[in-house]
Structures are given as C-alpha cells and as structure tokens.
Description:
The complex is a heterodimer. By secondary structure, chain A is an all-alpha fold. Helices cover about 75% and strands about 0% of the residues of chain A. In chain A, α3 packs parallel to α6 and α6 crosses α8 (about 175-205). Helices cover about 25% and strands about 35% of the residues of chain B. The two termini of chain B are about 40 Å apart. The interface of A and B includes residues 183 and 273 of A.
Amino acid sequence: MTSRRALVADVAVLVFLALYAVPFLWQVLTSFKPEAELLRVPPLWPTTLTLSHYEVVFTQSAMPRALLNSLGVGVLTTALACALGVPAAFALATLRVPAAGPLMLGVVASTAFPQIATVSPLYLVMRALGLRDTWAALVLADASFALPFVIWLMTRFMREIPRELSEAAALDGAGRWRTLLSVHLPLTAPGLASVALLTFLFAWNEFLFAFTFTATEASRTVPVALALFPGVFEVPWGDIAAASILASIPPVLIVVGLQRWLVRGLLAGALTE
Amino acid sequence: MAQVVMKELNKKYDEVHAVKDVNLHIRDKEFVVLVGPSGCGKSTTLRMVAGLEEITGGEIVIGDRVVNDLPPKDRDIAMVFQNYALYPHMTVYDNMAFGLKMRKFPKTEIEKRVQDAADILGIRELLKRKPRQLSGGQRQRVAVGRAIVRHPQVFLFDEPLSNLDAKLRVQMRVELKRLHDRLETTAIYVTHDQVEAMTLGDRVVVMKDGWIQQVGEPLELYGKPANKFVAGFIGSPAMNFAEATVSEEGGSVIVTNPGMRIAVAPARAERLRAYKGQTVTLGIRPEDLHIAAGDGRTGIDAVVEVVEPLGSEILLDVKVGSHVMVARVEPTVRAKVHEKIRLNVEPDRLHFFDAKTEAAI
Lengths: 273, 361
C-alpha cells in the first residue's frame, strides 16, 4: 500500500514540476520561433526553427555586454560578501565577542530590510563617490545587502563545529586565521558553497540597484538589459525570449557544477564526530 | 620533561568561584590525576594549565616558566579531549601531523614522528583513514597519538576514556599507564571516575566545590582519607557512615549507636576522648565488616536486606538501626535475606570524622 501511495505522490510531484516548467519551455520554444508565428497560436508547434533571435541578441543588443557585467558583478559581490562575512561569522561563532547577542540580532534583523528603503540614499552616496554607472557601485550595494545573510548562515554553520576543535588547533599551534582556514573553512565548505551560490543568484537577479545606479551599457546587468529590450513601437518577443534563455544559462550551469557540494551542505549536521 | 606548579590558583566566573586557592606541585614525570564530582573545578584547573581558560588569580609554572600569559601553543603541552576533537576532514596522518606542520618541522621529521607514534599505538594501518571511519577506541588512540608526536613537556588528559564502553575503558586505562611508563612525561589527568584515578595516578588530587580536599598516593587516600568527602568518594562500594556517640567505659573509649557498640583501638582513643558525650561520624569500609561468631560485648547487630553474590565476593546490604550499610564478605558466607546477623570490625580499621567539619579525627 505504501508503495502505491508513494507512486501517487511521485506522479503528483512530476505533474507539478511539469506545470512549473511550462512557462520556461514556452520561452525556449518562443526563442526559436520565426518572427511571423510569434503571436499566433495555431500552429502551437513552430513550422520551422530559427536561430535568428539569438543572432540579433548577440550582434545587435546589449546582452553580451550585460552578461559580462552580471557575471563580473555577481562574482565580485559573492567574493566580497564571503571574504567579509566568513571571518565575521568565525568571530561570532568561536570568540568571546562583546555584545554578540545584540550584534547577531542586528545582523538577522538587517536581512529583513527592504531594498527600496535604502535605494535613494544609496544613490546619493554612489553619486557623491563618483561610482554611478560602475561595477563598483553594484558590487558595494549588493554585497552590503548579502553580507548579513552570509554572516547569519555561516555563524550557524560554524557554531555546529565543536569548540574542542578550535581548542585542539590552538594547542597544535594554529593562530586564529590558521584555525579558520584549516579547520572551520573546510568543515563548513558545503555550507559556504550554498551561501555563495545564493549570494551569486541574488546579485544575478538583482534589479532595483542595477536599474538605479546604472546609466549605460558599461554597467547594465542582465535584468536591466532585459527590461530595456522593448522598443518604442514594438515588443520583440522572440529576441526577449532568446535573451532570457541566455540569462538563465550561467546560474543553471553553476548549480549543476556545485551540486555535489550543495547536497553535502544540506547534511551539514553530520560534523560532530 | 617538566614540573608543573600551581600557586594560589583561582578561577572566578561572573557568578561562580570555580577554582579556589589551588596549590599543587606536580613533579617531573609524575602522573597526577584530578578527580571529583562534576562541577568540582578539576576540568577548569586543567584548562587553565592548558591556557584555554584565563587565570583569575595565582600562578602556573611549567618547567621554570610562569605561563600565566602564554598562549596555549607556547606552553609546550599537548591535550587529549573527552570527545577526541579530531579534525574530521583530515586523515589520521594529517591529524597527527597538523601540530608539527604548524611548528614548521621538516617533512622527514614529521613523517618519522608520526610513524613512530603510530607504531607505539598500533594504528599504522589507519593512517590514511578519516576519523569517521574509526571506532571509538581507534579515535582515542589517534587523539593520544596527536599528543605524543609533539614530544611535549606535559600531557593533559580531560576525561579521555569516558566516551568508551566499560570493557574498552579498562583496556585503554592499562595502555595509558604503560604509555606513561614508556614516555616518562609529566601528565595531568582529569576524571570523575575514582577507579581510573586510583589505577592511573602516581598521586591523586581529590577536589570538591573548587577546593582541593586531599592530595596523596592512591592507597594513602584510601587508608587515611582527610575528611568524610574523600572517604566516601574513594572506594567502591563506598565507605559506610553512621552517627555514633562517644563514651568512656572503664578506661576504654566506646562508640555506640542503636544496634552498634564498638570499642576504639587505644591508638585512636586519645583524640576521640575530646569528643566524649558528643556525636561523631563513624566510617567503616565494606571489607572491614566481618560476620562475627557468638555475641561478644561489642559488635554490630544487622538485618540482611539484599544479597549480591559477585563471585569473588558477596556484598550484603544490611540495616543497622536506621542506617543502611554494605559489607563485603567471603563468597563462602551463606546469608539469607531478613536474617539477623552480627558483624564485627577491627578496631584499628575504623575512621572517625567530626560531625560538623567532617574532617578526620
């Protein structure tokens, strides 16, 4: 009986997953449809497949540059947020930090901050610093938003590491940095992989800062470039679809690449040996 | 090789005074065990020697150096933790080599020391494994190995056997003792298990509530406990205690209690005379109670409540007046539950404690 019930559950899950996939698959289909068939429903299946939309996106749009911008901003944001957040988490988890409780509360509370509340003052700051329309503006803004989240999660991972491991390392002659690098970082690597991925995806998808702080192709990221695709007189659905597909490829590749680590991150509790 | 000296050592947390005026001189190559119930300050004392806890007051000397302000890594000590604290992501080899790498030993020297330690501990074939692939006893060995490769001045053990099952614990206990004989390194060992303390220690330090109760060789603690706490803590089954009144009859000192009337040995009588007419705490080790023949003028009237035949001996739980006592008797004794028996005790094997201060009289 349980196997039949499990089968029903599996089928239900598959149906739901298929429903989720429909818009994406529709987008994929659209990106290969000839211009003339884009807005007509019969035929549901295109009569011919074309790469013309991709050609347009690559040769005549801002997308190649936007992909580069997004990749750069995403990687640098992730690197900055982790470089600052991991040592902070290590300190909060293992050292006697004065007022660690209120500090942690502040960190957790600031993850709930709505972006829209800070966008105007941040814009003034970026203008004053002369950072408008640069990667730096986006990296600083995105990293400052991702940082509390990184600190919060990494602190939780690091707190699971028994205190005796730090003490053993101290007796073995490791300083704090060495302990972080040789003991805590390897043991929280799966968790860090998850945190880094989520940070990257946040930066990749981030629209509000990217829209506000950028002015030209020099720093426009993928979400902004996509939003600016519609022309004045017409909406090039096919080109937008092709650009969207291109925009989803890097994150998917990264998730697939990190899959082994991400699964281990979910099993992070198995540390206390 | 080094001595360890603690002078007026104190540790205060916000609310708790965990270690109080500890004075202890641990000699070079000595194996000293700190023992006591949980919360007695033994682990805190060890951690202060290790440098893992700050010292509130007093001084710790290792070798000839005052180490109060030295970080753990500069104290030339190695520690074995209760939960082993092996690095889970490193192989056994790397676990043992880590401390040497940190100290920038040449690779060949690291290799040699790890191999030597692995040979001593019989874990050579485990060097490439990760801790999670090892049994509890094997992890224990690796933890010890990590300590001995460093050739430290002092070994610190924090309840290293308490996570092992009973059989393995006895085996590792013997191995640790053998290892200490071989390495001839000063060792401080913390445990709550008095059997471990007695079997391992050259000297044993009994602690309670942050105070040292007594320092001495195992048999000294057993035979001449300084107070009621040490008397009750050392020995299993524990010493029997009973309140008794001191009186004098025809020149000899007698202690009495309902169901009990015991003449005190002349050597002990002098000091007890001062307590004439008062109540003292009488202490009798279970093995000092014997089944008595006939009914002499002195002895203990008891009713058997439980018989525990252990094979090499029999434990009798008996009721004496309002007290319950345990007698350890020969396996040939045939005693039945509810049977009335008469017990006797060698007068010079009695212990007396002041009823108020609990100090030995």
